Amino acid sequence: MSATDAAAWASYEAGWTMWNHVRVGLYLLSGIVLAVAAVLPATNAVDTAQ
């Protein structure tokens, strides 16, 4: 592997790692939002039934 190849890989890997972390964070956030949306109607139904 040449020095140019190594530098290109290091540059690519840094950007990929950052955006991969962003992607994982967004997936976690969407899972939390989905869980809250699934529980929220049940809690509203209990509150209005009393």
Task: Provide key terms for this protein.
mainly alpha, 94% helix, 1 helix, 50 residues
Structure description:
With 50 residues, the protein is an all-alpha fold. The chain has 1 helix and no strands. It has one helix spanning 3-49. The model has no long low-confidence stretch (mean pLDDT 86).
Structure in a nutshell:
With 50 residues, the chain is mainly alpha-helical. It has one helix at 3-49.
Task: Compute the number of helices.
Answer: 1
Percentage of residues in DSSP E strands: under 5%
Give the low-pLDDT segments: none
The counted number of beta strands is 0
The N- and C-terminal alpha carbons lie at a distance of 71 Å
Helix content: over 70%
Global morphology: rod-shaped
Tell me the radius of gyration: 22 Å
Q: Main beta sheet: strand number and arrangement?
A: none
N to C succession of SSEs: H
- What structural class do the secondary elements suggest? mainly alpha
Produce the secondary structure layout.
Blueprint: H1 3-49
